[in-house]
Amino acid sequence: MTSVLYDAPGPRARRNTAIGTTVALVLLAGVVALAVVQLGANGQLDGEKWGPFFNPGNRYFTATWRALGVGLGNTLVAAALTLVLALAIGTALAVLRISSTPVYRWLVVGVIELLRGLPVVITIFLAARVLPEIGVTLPPLWYLVIGLTLYNCVIIAEIVRAGVAALPRGQSEAASAVGLTRFQVLRIILLPQAFRIMLPALISQLVVIVKDTSLGFIIFGFSEFVRTANTVIQFFGGQEEINLPLQAYTAVALVFILINYGLGKLAEYVQRRSGRASRSAAVAVRAPVKVGTGGG
After folding, report:
1. Helices in the chain by DSSP H: which ranges?
2. Each residue of 159-183: pLDDT tens digit?
3. Nearest by Cα to 246 from 79, 107, 44
4. Does pLDDT of 200 surpass 50?
5. Which residues, other chains included, contact 128 with Cβ-Cβ below 8 Å and sequence gap of 6+?
6. Could you tell me which residues come within 8 angstroms of residue 98 by beta carbon, excluding any fewer than 6 positions away?
7. 137: domain range?
8. Phi and psi of 26, rounded to 5°?
9. For 62-90, what is each residue's pLDDT tens digit?
10. Would the pLDDT of 214 be above 70?
């Protein structure tokens, strides 16, 4: 089948693509092999160094993962709190932007654009440094949650607004015709459908939130997953006089990959279920029409 986006490659283009891919894979394999050789020469591949993280029979394995588990728990708690707060505040911002008068709408848009333009590390830093200066003293976990919420709530606001904008205009017009206010139309009709449409995007945003929790290292006194791994590295460097940053951060990276891969698959599953539900609803709506037409 001919593509409408680009010309189908001919025999020469396919051959050149295959050659380029093969060369790139060979070069990549060479770089990986060179890295493995260098790591082996420096003793980084010794089983003793990987044991505390990947060998259950190692005497430090249980203690290492008990410590890392505390940091991972803090990371997941921060991500869950951020998602709940960002979802609530983001939904409120989306509703205000859609239903407000033009004067107030520009104020909401200004807040959204301001927070969207700030790097997330800056919002975390501001929460951790500014709030104590004005007398707001909170547990370190909440400084991270507030910083992440400030950034992610405006992203979620745009996701929700896009979901509402994707719905047919006839629904809101019909609801307004029967006397519903704009807020009632949003609350009863549009928002439930928008959340169902944008649920995969919201789950994908959770992946971003989980990764951004690693920026909690800038908050003094908060032991998230990456900082806990750094503490474990310092322990082995001081007590056992062995340097394990490669092994520790590899373990942390694998845990993050597993969590985010699972969330990504969950988003794909939700998207497939939503697609099947939409097709089933469309068939259910069309079916009476076909029956009525056939009986005429």
Report:
1. 11-41, 47-54, 61-99, 102-117, 120-133, 140-165, 169-177, 182-184, 191-212, 225-235, 245-295
2. 888 888 888 877 777 877 777 777 7
3. 44
4. yes
5. 140, 143, 144, 147, 218, 219, 220
6. 161, 164, 182, 186
7. 59-266
8. -65, -45
9. 999 999 999 999 999 999 999 999 999 99
10. yes
- The CA distance from 78 to 215, in Å, is 11
* Contact (CB, 8 A) for 96 and 108: yes
Task: Output the CA–CA distances (angstroms, integers) from residue 157 to 82, 90, 109, 160, 200, in the order listed.
Answer: 14, 4, 10, 5, 15
According to the model, what pLDDT value does residue 279 have? Answer: 56
Q: What is the mean pLDDT of the chain?
A: 83
CA angle 187, 190, 193 (to 5 degrees): 115
Q: Is the pLDDT of residue 249 over 50?
A: yes
Note whether residue 2 is domain-resident. Answer: no
Q: Is residue 40 part of a domain?
A: no
What is the phi-psi region of residue 221: left when phi exceeds 0, alpha when psi lies from -120 to 50, beta otherwise? left
How many residues are recorded in the chain? Answer: 296
The Cα 11–Cα 13 span in angstroms is: 6
Instruction: Specify the pTM.
Output: 0.77
46 is a domain residue? no
Residue 35 Cα distances to 25, 29, 44, 49, 73, angstroms: 15, 10, 11, 17, 33
Place of tokens 């990987």: 50
Total domain count, the chain: 1
CA 49 to CA 54: how far, in whole Å? 9
- Residue 149 is part of a domain; what is its CATH number? 1.10.3720.10
pLDDT band, residue 7 (cuts 50/70/90)? low
Answer with the residue of higher pLDDT: 40 or 151.
151
Other CB atoms within 10 Å distance of the CB of residue 165: 11
